[in-house]
Amino acid sequence: TREKRSRFSFRRQVKSRRRSMNVILDSNVYVSDYRMENISFKNLFDYLKRTGDTLVLLRIVREEVVAHFARDLKKRGKEVAEAWRGYRALHFPDKFPEFTKPDIANQKKLLRDRLMKPSDAIVVTYHADTTRISIDDVFIRGIHRIPPANGNGEELRDVIVWLSTLDYAKTSNSSVAFITDDSGFWVNDDV
Q1: Of the candidates 28, 22, 59, 31, which has an alpha carbon nearest to the alpha carbon of residue 148?
Q2: H-helix or E-strand spanning residue 22
Q3: pTM score above 0.85
């Protein structure tokens, strides 16, 4: 029992020395599954629950995800409405009711809420401050094609996401994991 207590005490000390991790997701990660229900999100949320680490939502990421979602919803709504009209005309004995267009404004609000609280057990920190992001840094990266700006000097939104991530890491004085599905953040093995 004394041996068990000392091992338990050691584990607790090791856990208490572990530096917390803040996880920042790029927009493309959220766009791949707006509902945040696929296996990648389940694994991430399980990790965050186990460790007590925090999910950080950057303002630029939130705004891009919500805008992308609204465009997707509008496009898909039009596709479904067209298919529904054709199907509706073929149904006997009665026609089905007209297709109901989605309430995009309400859906955007629900997505914003979900981004801030993907589950009860996940802590989300919203980072809206971009005052320390220098427009000079953004355009210099674009002009000189410094990643994540691409070879055409584009992808400046990615530059802002990257600079926001670095700013958050500095100001929070904590470890940060940045997860993206965008290869533009790397050149060979360098970030």
Answers
A1: 28
A2: strand 21-25
A3: no
